[in-house]
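User: quick one, fold this
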Amino acid sequence: MALTTMSIRVDENDKRRFDDFCNQTGLNASVAVNMYIKAVLKDNRIPFEITADPFYSRENMNRLKKRIDDVNSGKSTLKEHELIEVD
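Assistant:
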């Protein structure tokens, strides 16, 4: 089996915490990532649930763009909201 190298970008704090976790379980990051890859390939799916954030739905993005256009054209104005603290 030929091996190759994979480079990924990870938040520095997340990497440190992940390395700590791996050490506590007797693994290293390379073994843990390879286990993840094998699980994905075995089941042909991500081994945990991923759900879309409804904020980024096409419908909501279109609504936000329309509001921005309305504000920029003067058709609508921005108002303070009681849930937003203003200093």
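User: anything notable?
Assistant: The first helix runs from residue 12 to 24.
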